[in-house]
Amino acid sequence: MSSTGTALVTLEDGEEMARFSISAPTVPLTPVQIGLRARTVQFNAAGTLAYVASDNKVSVVDVATGTVKSATTLTADVGHVVLSPDETRLFANGGNGSVWTLSAASPGAPTATATLTRSMSGLAISKSGTSLYAAGSLFELWRLDPTTLQIAANVKTLGTEVGDVVVSQDEKEVYVVADQGTLWVLDATTLAPAGYVDVGHGALWMALTPDGKQLYVSSWSMGDVIIVDRVGRSVVSRVHVGGYPRSIAFDKLGTTAYVANMNGWVDVIK
Question: Which tens digit of pLDDT belongs to each residue from 138-162?
Fold first, then answer.
């Protein structure tokens, strides 16, 4: 969801991304021809560019026209892409256990690469841009130096099928979901566990509300979106949407959540 109100929805089994405006969601815009297995999208602050992880590449998309401006080929399927807060660097991770740094202005060959494990999952960067967090799908989370990709901290006990990673706005805590139903709360510096919330099986995707107060977690196995009080570390409510809810995004005011559903629709939660 861009700051200007344009949504891009990845379609893993197709070769394009759906595109629509939240002011007229039933009127689809021309889709973006992106190639196979598009997965995650990161917008710049102005909402003019989108960076898309798909297959074995990172693509730069003009949001207004839906055209691909450039594409950088990497050595494995790309799962996540995030943009540094100053918008100078892109970070991506892949199915071969790699994390890459690219130039955001002119993506080309990676300027840094780290190989951490067999398969990566979540990826997030702190608000100040001083810490990069990369999750391995089996058990692990790393805190990396964003400049060198050197390991600063590591935890290995998070469980199988680790999913999304979120950093609190004050950069004191980092949150990780795992498929067995655990939302972990970790110290953002040491990665020492500080607590957890039981959100139920199937939790792989998560997003922080713009005001930083709540975490929205989607469960593919229950068809629920679980709303968690971030500070109180408790479940506030569950919204049953059915199907297989996945990635979550908010409008810029934080009053509406948009949840991509793997059954072929987008759920809107107000």
Answer: 889 999 999 999 999 999 999 888 9
